[in-house]
Amino acid sequence: MVKLTTRPATREDAAAIAAIYNEGIADRVATFETEPRTAEQIAGQLTDKGERYPTVVVERDGRVIAWASAGAYRTRPAYAGVAEHSVYVARAARGTGAGRAALNALCDVYAARGFWKLVSRIFPENAASLGLHEACGFRVVGVYERHGKLAGEWRDCVIVEKLLDR
């Protein structure tokens, strides 16, 4: 079995992160985004998020195959410990445990920074992501109906959360 390692992302990972994200955009089951990202855009996001909202990557044989990141849930002070996250796995690495490694590492990193909850929105059709989140201790809170349009079609979103202090 090939060993997976996790670490904080750096600007040098931007091209690999962009490539993986662009696969997710193209698949149309993981995000409302439709425009591919460049390495420069991702590098800028990594810089903008800084130490407060780090991204983690998963490597296999020295290559980035998955990543997870989060950002502010809301700007109100009451939500300072809640972050909204995403996790993406390269098509060729799906089903290998890379998503679980990325999401578990993200939970650990954010708990260590004093966050008490991670949340996300997942398309109901994205069974792999829903299963991953359940396996990593997230629970389904509910469904946002007609939350946004993708390619002119309304999409629902399943809301998941995990309390990090448990």
Description:
The model has no long low-confidence stretch (mean pLDDT 96). It contains four helices and seven strands, in the order E-H-H-E-E-E-H-E-H-E-E. Strand 4, helix 3 and strand 5 form a beta-alpha-beta unit. The longest helix has 15 residues. It has a single domain, classed as Gcn5-related N-acetyltransferase (GNAT) (Aminopeptidase, 3-Layer(aba) Sandwich). Strands 1-2-3-4-5-7-6 form a seven-stranded mixed beta sheet. Helix 1 packs across helix 2. It starts with a strand and ends with a strand. The protein is α+β, with helices and mostly antiparallel strands and 166 residues long. 30% of the residues lie in helices and 34% in strands.
Beta strands, count: 7
**Whole-number total of structural domains:** 1
| Main sheet summary | 7 strands, mixed
Residue stretches low in confidence (pLDDT < 50, at least 5 long) are none
Structural class: alpha+beta
Gyration radius from CA atoms, angstroms: 15 Å
- Beta-strand level of the residues, as a percent range? 25-35%
Cα distance spanning the termini: 30 Å
Q: Strands of the largest sheet, in order across it?
A: 1-2-3-4-5-7-6
What percentage of residues falls in helices of 4 or more residues? 25-40%
Shape: globular
| CATH evolutionary superfamily | Gcn5-related N-acetyltransferase (GNAT)
CATH topology: Aminopeptidase
CATH class: Alpha Beta
**Overall pLDDT level:** 96
- Looking at the overall shape, the CATH architecture is 3-Layer(aba) Sandwich
Number of helices: 4
What is the N-to-C succession of helices and strands? EHHEEEHEHEE
